[in-house]
Amino acid sequence: MSEHFPALIIIVPLLAAFLIAVAGWVNKRLCFPIAAASLCVSLYSAVRLLGIVLESGMVEYQLGGWPPPWGIAYNVDHLNGLVLVVISAVALLNLVANKKSIAQEFPEKIGPFYTLYILFVTGLTGMVVTGDAFNLYVLLEIASLTGYALIGIGKDRAPLASLNYLFMGTIGASLYLLGVGYLYLVTGSLNMADLAALLPQIYDSKVVLLAFVFCLTGLFVKMAFFPLHAWLPNAYSYSPSCASSLIAPLTTKVMIYVMIRIVLSVFTPEFSFASLKISNAIVWLAVFAIIMGSLFALSQKSLKKMLSYVVIAEVGYMVGGFWLGNRPGMTGAILHIVNDAMMTLCVFLAAGTILYKTKGDSFDDLKGLFKKMPFSMTAFVIGALSIIGVPPTCGFFSKWYLISGGIAAGHYGFVAALLFSSLANVVLFFRLIEICYYEPFADHHHEKEESSLDEAPATMLIPLLMTAILLIVLGIYSGELVTNVIEFAIPGGIT
């Protein structure tokens, strides 16, 4: 069975999605167990696959026994083995945490919601595991279309935010597809390993350059890299909390993974960093993204909108770190994919529990929450400390690598932006903690009513607290993660 893990990660959730759609008509109670079981299989397969990769190197799985470049191959190495574990873990934790809020928000749409949820995860894992550039586009569209639906299923402004996301997302995906089309035009191949072997002979071709630019721009739109971020704040703010706590931690991180994969594995680092000479310009764009994301976050009065702008700043961290082009910068970028997925999950899950209890997420709704929801708020504080970068939480360690990379590259603008963003996060989160901790000035009766314990249900709390603990565990073991996994994900020629 172990040789089929790459296929099981995708096939089991895909089949489960069809089963859930049927179960939605027959018996709605079956939807959650089927979804949870399929994600458990995905997580188990991902963990086992990473173990195999650590022991014996890259795993290649040929679909239908057709060898590449004619057939589609699934390749799992240190980089995507790690990302697969992150996707499966985030999806499973979020599913369990939101069982109650899904039942509360969508009593009539439980079947369709879980179907979309599982298809979204299938699309993301497929993008990560595939070794075929066109197959990646197909899976990108599966993830995108289900993502639009998960956002649009919400109330009030959610459908409009989803439509905006659809327009921007379609442009991004079309640009990527155009780039892949140009690559096929000059090489006659869509297999990534095959492209990597064929492209070096024709690097001086303008078509190859155009393909690279189109692919990269498309991915920048999909990952909401500033100033191509316009779809993200409303999409994450107005979507149902059970959808935003899945999409926010995963979408941008998977797109950054795809960028790293395209730059390092399809085109070579020599072409991407040495020949093109665009890395410095991209790092400056990342500096701009970090600063503007932080400033926009500071001006918000709603929790989810503020967290959405924090995500935009974090995208700048990872893009900038990677395009520094040195080993510490890339290590920081890859480590931050893992850390940021978990940090974002933690704070969005906490926002979801607050919304579930208070029915609002404006800063005024947060008053006195430390006394009413102490466990939820403790988890939120741990997530906040990790985003700020306080040791021993994991956010500190990836930030440390990113700053080291900036210093090694002599890019002090990037270092300054990271420090500015950390200070902005201190202001952001301590302002929130102050609102939640200090009671509003009111009459004695109101104060007594405010301070009574009103914690979220255990099914929401346990995954939230597990995520918060994971942030500390990831921080403590980040050294092992770097030496055993991430070191092998970065090509040997990069110093």
TrEMBL record:
Name of the featured protein: NADH-quinone oxidoreductase domain-containing protein
Q: Which domain of life is it from?
A: Bacteria
* GO terms of biological process kind: ATP synthesis coupled electron transport
Spans traversing the lipid bilayer: 6-27, 34-59, 79-98, 110-128, 134-153, 165-187, 207-225, 246-269, 281-299, 306-325, 337-356, 377-402, 414-437, 458-477
Q: Which GO terms label this protein's molecular function in UniProt? A: NADH dehydrogenase (ubiquinone) activity
Question: From which source organism is this entry?
Answer: Desulfonema magnum
Keyword annotations for this protein, in alphabetical order, are:
Cell membrane, Membrane, Transmembrane, Transmembrane helix
Localization recorded for this chain is: Cell membrane; Membrane
Q: Which family does it belong to?
A: Belongs to the CPA3 antiporters (TC 2.A.63) subunit D family.
Primary site of residence: membrane
Pfam families given in the database record: Proton_antipo_M
Q: Which residues form the NADH:quinone oxidoreductase/Mrp antiporter transmembrane domain?
A: 132-422
GO cellular component, alphabetical, reads: plasma membrane
What's the protein's topology in the membrane?
Multi-pass membrane protein
